[in-house]
Structure formats: structure tokens, C-alpha cells
Design goal:
The complex is a heterodimer of chains A (96) and B (210).
Chain A (H helix, E strand, L loop, with lengths): L1 H25 L3 H26 L3 H37 L1
Chain B lengths: L4 H15 L26 H23 L6 H13 L14 H27 L8 E6 L6 H12 L3 E7 L2 E6 L6 H15 L11
Antiparallel strand pairs in B: 1-3, 2-3
Classes of the chains: A mainly alpha (96), B mainly alpha (210).
């Protein structure tokens, strides 16, 4: 039962990764694409991490999974901001 | 919070480093004040510096221990890595002091989980919809939170909220990119700011309280 629930979470997480990738391909500009990557992939990873944590054997493994999720979440928000800022600044230089 | 240091440097730390041309020569008169919000950095209290460093060492050691499964032979790399890691914050200007409200943090965590699901579902539905319903635009909003951790958290959380992305910080103004210009940005940001003020036990902004 637990394994089934974990598998469902992981499948759902994968679906969000696919949605993020589809958004990356379909959305018109770099900023909209960043929305797709930071949000959809972030939740995808959270769901997969939750599913894997349910299957984990020890508290240490759960902690490691939580650590992975936390650092990826902070890094993706920060990287999204940095990419957007770079895009704006380089566009500004080109326009002036 | 060390992972978000680049943002902090851009948002506020550069200003701080300008405001203390010679931090070492300052008298130690008001170094003992513990006002939580913005303080121009005084000469750091030695006890507090030691306490901060010990805390970093403790947290990093715990992380190292869990990552390596508490293996004794991993300490050959672990001890230097922990000591170096704990020294990294001293390379940067001292961030303003902040404290955390446990209740605010719990409420925030729950709310944040719900919002990030909403944001992800929103963007996923748009990705698969034939007409993506995009009406992207940029908006400028004033940053009224104190510099340092509250501001960094505000900027990073905006990116995970439905339909918004923090694109650039220009002084005290944040440029937000929106997927749909019809959404009510001011309301969402005022709500987020109130929640971050609760998280950091800051006084609520009377203008924005709902």
C-alpha cells in the first residue's frame, strides 16, 4: 500500500517534470520559460522526493532527501532570478 | 541561507559595505543593541561572532555526519570542509541580524506548500493548453521589507508563487515578471509581505495589513 502511494507520488512528480519541459519548449520567451522551469520542476522534485522518502529505509536517508530538495528549491529560485536579470541587462545593453 | 548569498550581495550588502568605510575604527557604543530589523553594521560583538561560528560548525558537522553516515574515516575531509565552510560567511559583509517566529514559520511553510502546488499546476496547465493564456508583462514594485534575510526570502518566494517571477532588483525596487497581466499582483505581494513579516517576527506594515 505504502509502495503504491509512493509510486503514485513519483509518477505525479514525473508528470510535472514533463509539464515543465513542455512549457520550456512551448512558451514564447525566456521569462515565461523560467516560470515553467522553476515552478513545475520544483513541485516535480518535491513529489518525487516525497515518494522516495516514503520508501527510504532510515532517518538518515530521509534527511538527505530533504536536504536535496531544500538546496534545489533555493538554487532554482535564485538561478531563475539570475537568468532573468542577465536576460534583462543584456537586452538593455542591446537596445541602448 | 548561504546558498542565497549572491542575491543578498546584490540587494543590500553592497550598500552596507559602502556605509562603513572603516568598520574597524568605529567605537563600540551601540554594538549591544539587538533591534531585529535593519541595523547598519556596527563593529561585531566578539561573543556573537564566536557564537555564530560555533553554530555554523555545529550545523555543518551534523550535515556532514548524516551525509557520510557518521563514518570516522570521512573526517579526514570532513573536518577541513566544515571549518572552511563555517569561515565562508566572514568573507561577506555581516548580514543584518534577524530572528524567527516559530508560529509564523509553521504557518508560512504550510501556506508556501499550497502556493507552490498552485503555481506548478497553473504553469503545467498552461503548458498543455492549446491557447496558453499568456499575457506576460513586467511590473515594478517597491521593496519595503528590511534588507537581508527577509528581503531575500521575499524575492525567492515570489518566483514560486503562481504566475510571478522576480526578474531584477534595482535598489529598492523589484521587477516582477507576470505570466498574466490580469492577475492582481499588488494583493498577492502585500499578502506575501505580511506573511514574511510574521515569519521574521517583524512589526506589520499598517498600510498593508488586511
Amino acid at each position: 500500500m505504502l509502495e503504491l502511494f509512493a509510486a503514485a507520488l513519483i509518477a505525479l512528480g514525473t508528470a510535472f517534470f514533463i509539464a515543465g519541459t513542455v512549457g520550456l519548449l512551448r512558451f514564447p520567451d525566456i521569462y515565461c520559460r523560467l516560470h515553467a522551469l522553476t515552478k513545475a520542476d520544483g513541485l516535480g522534485l518535491a513529489l518525487i522526493a516525497l515518494g522516495v522518502a516514503l520508501l527510504a529505509g532510515s532517518a538518515g536517508e530521509v534527511f538527505r532527501i530533504a536536504l536535496v530538495w531544500f538546496f534545489v528549491a533555493v538554487a532554482s529560485a535564485t538561478c531563475g532570478h539570475l537568468i532573468a536579470r542577465y536576460a534583462r541587462q543584456s537586452a538593455g545593453v542591446g537596445d541602448d | 541561507m548561504s546558498a542565497t548569498t549572491p542575491l543578498r550581495l546584490n540587494a543590500s550588502a553592497r550598500v552596507q559595505s559602502l556605509t562603513r568605510p572603516d568598520g574597524h575604527g568605529l567605537p563600540q557604543t551601540d554594538a549591544a543593541q539587538t533591534v531585529p530589523a535593519i541595523r547598519t553594521p556596527e563593529r561585531p560583538n566578539r561573543l556573537r561572532v564566536v557564537r555564530r561560528w560555533l553554530l555554523s560548525v555545529l550545523v555543518l558537522s551534523a550535515i556532514w555526519g548524516v551525509l557520510t553516515g557518521w563514518r570516522a574515516d570521512s573526517l579526514i575531509f570532513g573536518i577541513p570542509a566544515v571549518l572552511l565552510g563555517a569561515a565562508i560567511p566572514f568573507l561577506f559583509p555581516k548580514p543584518p541580524h534577524w530572528r524567527l517566529s516559530l508560529r509564523g514559520a509553521l504557518v508560512f511553510a504550510l501556506w508556501f506548500a499550497v502556493q507552490s502546488v498552485r503555481g506548478a499546476v497553473d504553469v503545467a496547465l498552461r503548458a498543455f493548453a492549446p491557447d496558453m493564456g499568456l499575457r506576460p508583462c513586467f511590473r515594478a514594485c517597491p521593496l519595503t521589507l528590511p534588507p537581508g534575510a527577509p528581503r531575500v526570502m521575499f524575492v525567492n518566494t515570489i518566483t514560486l508563487l503562481p504566475g510571478t517571477l522576480s526578474a531584477e532588483i534595482m535598489g529598492d525596487t523589484l521587477i516582477v515578471h507576470m505570466l498574466d497581466a490580469r492577475a492582481d499582483l499588488d494583493l498577492a505581494l502585500a499578502d506575501l509581505e505580511a506573511r514574511i513579516r510574521a515569519f521574521f517576527a517583524l512589526p506589520q506594515n499598517p498600510e498593508h495589513s488586511t
